[in-house]
Amino acid sequence: MRRPGSTVSFDDHVRPSFVKATPVIVVPYEYREYPRWLRRWDGRTFIEREVRSDEERADLGEDWAETHDEARAIYERQQERIANAAAERAYGDQKLSKRARAEKLAEERDTDQHVTE
Fold first, then answer.
1. Number of domains in the chain
2. What pLDDT sits at residue 48?
3. No. of H helices and E strands in the chain?
4. Is residue 73 one of the residues assigned to a domain?
5. By C-alpha distance, which of 71, 33, 82, 37 is closest to 54?
């Protein structure tokens, strides 16, 4: 029986006969660019895709990012550009005739998106 506070060595343990010890091989870490997960924020949820090559990544487009924060930032920049274009259009519409303004307003009512042109 062991006294409290005594040290334990590997020799003190008996390995059961059914356990076969296999050496652990440690492989050095090697960076691999692919596969990787890309994310896109659509305003409500994240969409994630796994890409396995540069071609797949290029096919997805510019609005995909590696992190959730980057994906949200890309979405916010896109929405800001759209909002600015819509504001510029609204400012330009002030110079239109009443009939032209009514046509543009009817066009805007048909969609829930910003009308930029």
1. 1
2. 95
3. 3, 2
4. yes
5. 33
Task: Give the C-alpha distances (Å, rounded to integers) separating 107 from 23, 33, 90.
Answer: 72, 46, 13
Residue 43: both structure tokens together: 């305003």
Give the number of other Cβ atoms within 10 Å of residue 41's Cβ: 21
Task: Name 101's Cβ contacts closer than 8 Å, sequence gap at least 6.
Answer: 93
Q: How far is CA 11 from the centre of its chain?
A: 51
| pLDDT score recorded for residue 91 | 87
Q: Do the domain assignments include residue 4?
A: no
Judge whether 18 lies within some domain: no
39-64 pLDDT, tens digit each:
999 999 999 999 999 999 999 999 89
Domain span at residue 81 reads: 31-109
CB 116 within 8 Å of CB 90 = no
| pLDDT tens digits for range 64-85 | 999 999 999 999 999 999 889 8
